[in-house]
Specification:
isoamylase activity; Ig-like_fold; eight-stranded parallel beta barrel; single chain; six-stranded antiparallel β-sheet; 679 residues; elongated
């Protein structure tokens, strides 16, 4: 190996080890290991600081000493963390390969990234981009005092998940935090989360991404899978990426809140053949990505984002599982949600596999044995695997739950059979495969689409601010504006909108399965009708915390609703209802209108568990009030929930529920009433 020193700092170079991949720090120095099957030469560049224009050392690795099969490696004795570095990689010039030794490349296993000098355009154009490259940071991953913290390991079926965007959650001045838009700021908002009653946060992508792109606010184009996003750190230049993320995790765990990460292993930020060259494409394009077999200069795109990671290639399968195990073992993460997870089931040529290796490797990893794994079980190329995603313990985002409940509350007729199935944990999707309600992640809203407030305020999307002439985003939102499109001062419309939000929230929390809440929905956050705010790093995409005060009644309802679910074990049971546990009704007892195409009303009586009371739930999505019969079999009923009543009377606290004399109960138009039995 050859060293070209550009200053007086000298290190001792040794052969090093081929494993583990990445930069591993120890007391004597740093070991570097990089996979590239087709590389003909590799150079390691060391930078004295995160913003240095040129490297202080360039080490040319000798394939006789520094290559073991397809892995290039060396040990730099005397180098100390944090150490800033990158690679130049040489290789064959033929279709399918994109080697360019003038480009500085990130280590796929980098634990930190800095972009102080980053110029995305220079990474797309021919020529040397050393002065404007991203740099990896070698960090001592073992140098942290967890103070006894471990993943919480609470059963998934007992969770209430809260999806949030680390930047948008606190970037608004209304958040009143010390470090807006950071991991630190999330920790500052823990009191809100604990008062609300959620038990897990699902963080939209926190693996490093290029936030210099206007269209990458959400972070769904990953640059470095092992590195906490530099933009969410207060001092990335000092190599504090891991510690700042760990501080947040430790604080959340201390409050009893688990941490799930939204991970994006379906594609990377390198895009298509015109995209920047900064990592995988320049390291070993043919092994990492699906290429067009007719012309391998181009990519097969199953993700809708320009490229697709070949997740079931052995080296990518290793990267994915190594990455997940790192976040669990070294960062104490409790679970993962996999974006466009259907891509992970594709094999050679893009065919969907019955037994995809990467999915089973994740399922069977001992390190991940207690970790929650959640699939968004579809992709942009048409694969849709809700109810049949491979594996036993994979949970799924249940898009059918979302669609059924949105349509029912909107007032669509003939859905009562589907509503009953969703309330019971979607047995039609999961029971035949031996799964349970805990395999269903139930949600009404998520980052992708309308917020809850916009769902009841807009009939159509309003994405003009995205600059795509309102062509982006879903056109079929199953929404209803309650009579007026967008903002209004009409008190009747505003009251109906709040009632509809409470209806949707109530159905979510009454359903077996795992409820997920979109951050800010609890106090009617709006995106002004934008249902695809991926590029809105501004008040459209930020949480406005002033709304927590303006909509205090709605926030109180959400808090009481989550507490209600927590008190009633029958709602959280990880089993499908049996006939002796639940009885279905219409407005008349024992007479559900399963075959009525005009039915908009449904009721059920649910037997309590663990000594809890029985529940009698009456759902009227008709536009007139209806009288429902209630069981008159010696049980005394009290009213716990009535979404049509004003704040404070809509959800009564335990012991404060008024009696309902029967034999019928009037349920207001477009509302839900829940009764509890008392002996």
């Amino acid at each position: 190996m050859t060293s070209h020193a550009l200053d007086q700092a000298m290190y001792t170079l040794e052969a090093g080890r081929a494993h583990p991949f990445g930069a591993r720090c120890d007391a004597g120095g740093v070991n570097f290991a990089l996979f590239s099957e087709h590389a003909t030469a590799v150079e390691l560049l060391l930078f004295d600081s995160f913003d240095a224009e040129a490297p202080s050392h360039v080490f040319e690795l000798d394939p006789r000493d520094n290559r073991s099969f397809a892995t290039w490696h060396c040990y730099v004795r005397g180098l100390r963390a944090p150490a800033h570095y990158g690679y130049r990689v040489h290789g064959p010039d033929r279709p399918g390969h994109r080697f360019d030794p003038q480009k500085v490349l990130l280590d796929p296993y980098a634990k930190g990234v800095t972009r102080a000098r980053w110029d995305r355009g220079a990474a797309c154009r021919p020529g040397d981009n050393t002065a404007t490259s991203m740099r990896a940071v070698a960090i001592d991953a073992d140098a942290y005092d967890w103070k006894g913290d471990r993943p919480l390991n609470r059963p998934l079926a007992d969770q209430v998940i809260y999806e949030l965007h680390v930047g948008g959650f606190t970037r608004s001045p209304s958040a009143t935090v010390s470090r807006p838009g950071t991991f630190t700021a999330v920790a500052e908002k823990i009191p809100h989360l604990t008062r609300l009653g959620v038990t897990a946060v699902e963080l939209m992508p926190v693996a490093d991404f290029d936030d210099s792109q206007a269209g990458n606010f959400w972070g769904y184009s990953t640059a470095a899978f092992f590195a906490p996003h530099a933009g969410y750190c207060t001092s990335p230049g000092s190599g504090a990426h891991l510690d700042e993320f760990r501080d947040m995790v430790r604080a959340l765990h201390g409050a009893g809140i688990e941490v799930y990460l939204d991970v994006v292993f379906n594609h990377t930020d390198e895009g298509n053949q015109l995209g920047p060259l900064f990592s995988f494409a320049g390291l070993d394009n043919a092994n990492y990505y699906y290429l067009d077999p007719a012309d391998p200069r181009y990519y097969d795109d199953y993700s809708g984002c320009g490229n697709t990671l070949m997740a079931n290639h052995p080296i990518v399968t290793k990267l994915v599982t190594d990455c997940l195990e790192f976040w669990v073992r070294d960062m104490h993460v409790d679970g993962f949600r996999f974006d466009e997870a259907a891509v992970l089931t594709r094999g050679a040529g893009g065919a969907v596999l019955d037994e995809p290796p990467v999915v089973w490797q994740i399922e069977l990893s001992e390190t991940l044995a207690d970790t929650k794994i959640i699939a968004e079980a579809w992709d942009a190329a048409g694969a849709y695997e809700v109810g049949r995603y491979p594996g036993y313990r994979w949970a799924e985002w249940n898009g059918r739950f979302r669609d059924t409940m949105r349509r029912f509350v909107r007032g669509d007729a003939g859905l009562v059979g589907d509503v009953a199935d969703r309330l019971g944990g979607s047995a039609s999707l999961y029971q035949a495969r031996g799964h349970a309600p805990g395999n269903s992640i139930n949600f009404i809203t998520c980052h992708d689409g309308f917020t809850l407030a916009d769902l009841v305020s807009y009939d159509t999307k309003h994405n003009e601010a995205n600059g795509e002439h309102n062509r982006d985003g879903n056109d079929d939102n199953m929404s209803w504006n309650c009579g007026v499109e967008g903002p209004t001062d009409d008190p009747a419309v505003l009251a109906l909108r709040e009632q509809q939000m409470k209806n949707l929230a109530t159905l979510l929390m009454l359903s077996r399965g795992v409820p997920m809440v979109l951050g800010g929905d609890e106090f009617a956050r709006t995106q002004q009708g934008n249902n695809n705010a991926y590029c809105q790093d501004n008040p459209i995409g930020w949480v406005d915390w002033h709304l927590a005060g303006r909509n205090a009644g709605l926030l109180r309802y959400w808090r009481e609703l989550l507490a209600f679910r927590a008190r009633h074990a029958t709602l959280r049971a990880n089993e499908f209802y049996t006939p002796d546990e639940i009885t279905w009704h219409g407005t008349e007892l024992g007479a559900p209108n399963w075959s009525d195409p005009q039915a908009r009303a449904l009721a059920c009586t649910v037997r309590g568990r663990a000594g809890g009371p029985d529940l009698h739930v009456m759902m009227n999505m008709y536009w007139e009030p209806l009288d429902f019969q209630i069981p008159a079999d010696g049980r005394r009923w009290v009213r716990a929930v009535d979404t049509a009543r004003p704040a404070g009377d809509d959800l009564r606290g335990e012991g404060a529920e008024p009696a309902v004399p029967g034999p019928t109960c009037a349920v207001a138009a477009r509302s839900i009433t829940v009764l509890l039995s008392h002996a």
